Each structure stands twice: as C-alpha cells, then as structure tokens.
C-alpha cells in the first residue's frame, strides 16, 4: 500500500495480510434512442488484517453516473459524474483525503474508423486530493483523434 509519511513524502510498503470485500454494481439503461444512462456503485471494505485498519487510498464508497446523449448521427456528448468517499492517506488511519465530487465532459464525432474528441476533465475545476494525499489536477482539456483497426 502507499503510505504517506511526515512532510508529504510517501512510499509503498508491503502489508502482511489484507482482505478486501465489497460490492460492485452497474446498470446500462437506454432511456431513448438518443439517451443512455449508466449508474454504478462500488462498496469496498479494505482492511489490513494484522492491525484491523483501513487500507490507504481505498474509498469505502464510489458512485458514478454517465449520461450519454446522441444529438445527431455520429455525435456523442457525455457527462460523467463521480463521487468518492473519504480515503485514508496514511496506513495508521490518522490522516485522510476528504470526499469529492467530479464532473467530466466528453464530445465525440465519428467519421469512418476515426473518432475526433474533446474531453474536459474536472469540468467544474473542483479542488480535491487523490487517495495518496496529493492534489488532483485542475480542469484539463484534451483534444484528440483515435482510429479503429
């Protein structure tokens, strides 16, 4: 597991014995020919068996909702919402990263085997930390082309 030490410097450390149990569920729902919803939920109980403490960087709850709209032929616009609950940043469970909400946007156009896309990650420019305690990036714009073979 990743262990954040004093002064913000961390390292990976081997644990003797861990157990991770939980539930992972998702549903893909075609509401209309132009709208697709995909909610998903993950519950995770991840603990170090030797200490009975939570593993670092593992959220207990993660919820997401993808909403994909097809406004015209070959076009897809998607909003992707993510929520993650509190995650401990230290293996001794004394520090944690707060829960966060994040919204991403993706626009895509297909032309033959090509996909042209624009993605905006962290659309609302939310301020949050990753599970390792490091700050996540602010709003990021990605523009690209992919080709299917």
Explain the overall architecture.
By secondary structure, this protein is mainly beta. Helix content is 0%, strand content 58%. The strands form 3 sheets. Strands 3, 4, 5, 6, 7, 8, 11, 12 and 13 form a 9-stranded antiparallel sheet that branches.
Task: Give the helices and strands, then pairings.
Elements: E1 2-4, E2 10-12, E3 18-26, E4 29-32, E5 35-48, E6 53-54, E7 61-69, E8 75-84, E9 87-88, E10 96-97, E11 100-111, E12 114-121, E13 140-147
Antiparallel strand pairs: 1-2, 3-5, 4-5, 5-6, 5-7, 7-8, 8-11, 9-10, 11-12, 12-13
Quote the average pLDDT: 91
Model regions low in confidence, pLDDT < 50 over at least 5 residues: none
Give the ordered list of helices and strands. EEEEEEEEEEEEE
The N- to C-terminal Cα distance equals 38 Å
The total count of strands amounts to 13
Shape: elongated
Rounded Rg: 19 Å
Secondary structure: helix percent: under 10%
Largest sheet: 9 strands, antiparallel
* Classification by helices and strands: mainly beta
């Amino acid at each position: 597991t990743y262990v954040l030490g004093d002064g913000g410097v961390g390292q990976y450390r081997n644990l003797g014995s861990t157990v991770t149990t939980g539930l992972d569920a998702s549903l893909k729902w075609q509401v209309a020919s132009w709208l697709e919803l995909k909610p998903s939920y993950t519950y995770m109980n991840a603990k170090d068996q030797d200490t009975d403490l939570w593993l670092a960087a593992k959220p207990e709850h993660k919820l997401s909702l993808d909403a994909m709209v097809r406004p015209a032929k070959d076009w897809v616009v998607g909003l992707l919402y993510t929520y993650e609950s509190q995650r401990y940043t230290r293996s001794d469970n004394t520090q944690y990263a707060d829960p966060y909400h994040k919204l991403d946007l993706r626009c895509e156009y297909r032309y033959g085997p090509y996909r042209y896309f624009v993605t905006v990650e962290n659309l609302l420019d939310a301020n949050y930390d990753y599970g390792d305690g490091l700050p996540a990036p602010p709003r990021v714009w990605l523009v690209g082309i992919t080709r299917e073979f």
